Amino acid sequence: MDAVCNSDETRRRFEIMARQVFIRFKALLMEPSALVYSERHDNIEAIYKKLQEKRDTADVTEVLKELHRIVNEAIRAAAPGDDAEGLTVDLRQIDFAKLRNEFANKVRRKHAALQDIREVVEKKLAQMLAHNPMRMDYYKKYQEIIADYNREKDRATVEATFVQLVTLAAGLDAEQMRAVQEGLSDDELALFDLLFKDAISKSDRERLKQASKALLASLLELLRSMHDWTQSTTTQAEVKVFILDQLWQSLPRPPFTEQEAEEVATRVYDYVWQRSASGTGLLAA
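Below the sequence we write its predicted C-alpha cells.
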C-alpha cells in the first residue's frame, strides 16, 4: 500500500487496473485455469480494500496520535497532549531538522504516512473554506506542496513534504484560532475578512469588526423569512440591495471610497449566495 501511495497518479492507476482485475477474474470464476491466479487476485484486492478503507474513514484520531508522536519527538520544549480534533502544534517549538530526521528514521511506510496527514489537512481545509473563502491561499499552498511531491519521488522530497504538511497543518490551527483572538464568531470573521482593507487604522479596524457583527445579525434576520431566496431574481435583488445599504452606512469613509464600498458589497453578496445555495452554515436558506 505504501508503494501504491508513491504519488496520486500511481494510486489512481493502481485502483483503475485493480478494478479491471476484479471484473475479469469474476467473469472467469468458473474457469479452472484462472484459479492459479486467485492468490494474486486476493493480494491485489487486499491492497485495494485497504486504500478504500483509509479513504472512507472519517475518524482521524489514530492518525493524529501517530503524527503527534512524531512531531512531539522534535519539540524543543514541553510537548502538547494528543488532540483528536486537529494537529495542534506551536511552530516556534519545533526543531524542523529534528522533525525531518524523526520522520526519515522512525517511519517505515513514508508514503502511507504522508497520505494520512494529507487526509487530516484536506479535512481541515474543507471545513475552513466552507466558512471562509478568503482562506483560499491555504488551499493553493497545499496544492503546490502536493504538486511538488508528485513531480519528485526521491527520499529527500518525501521527507520535505512531510515537514511542509506539518507546518501547513499547524498554520491551519492558528487560522482557526483567529476568530477567538479577534473576538468574532466564525461567520463574523468571514465577513470581516471580506470587508478588510490593508493599511487601515486601529480604530477603523475595530469599526470593521462592529460592521461585520451588525451585518451578520441583520442578514440572519432578513434571510430567516426568505426560503429559497437564491432561486428568485426578486429576492436576490432584495438581498443585494440590503447588503449595499448596510455597508454604505457602516463602512468608514475614508478610508473606503464609494466604488470600494460597492465592490465589497458584491463580494459579500456572492459569499452569502454561495453559503445559502450550498446549504452550509448559519447563512443557509
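Residues 61-182 form one domain.
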